[in-house]
Design brief:
Layout (H helix, E strand, L loop, with lengths): L1 H84 L1
């Protein structure tokens, strides 16, 4: 009889521990999921800001290149015009 009672008590302890472990795993999984989502959102925001900065810099460089190219083209056109007059 003692063995049966001991066996039942051990089984009960294991079952209750198993349920507590499942709860802890579920809670940990939820916490990690939330943390990953927050981190992902943070990375998205930082990446978007960085891309916007790079885009603005690239646009400025393109504008400067176009302006410089147009100035060089005008200078070349003036030289051609002057040489045609001679």
């Amino acid at each position: 009889m003692k063995k049966i009672i001991t066996l039942l008590s051990i089984i009960t302890v294991f079952i209750s521990c198993k349920e507590e472990t499942k709860e802890k795993v579920k809670d940990a999984t939820n916490a990690i999921t939330i943390e990953v989502k927050e981190t992902t959102d943070s990375v998205k925001i930082k990446a978007k800001a960085k891309l916007d900065t790079v885009k603005i810099k690239a646009e400025d460089k393109v504008k400067n290149l176009v302006k410089t190219g147009a100035e060089k083209l005008e200078e070349g056109a003036k030289k051609v015009k002057e040489s045609a007059k001679k």
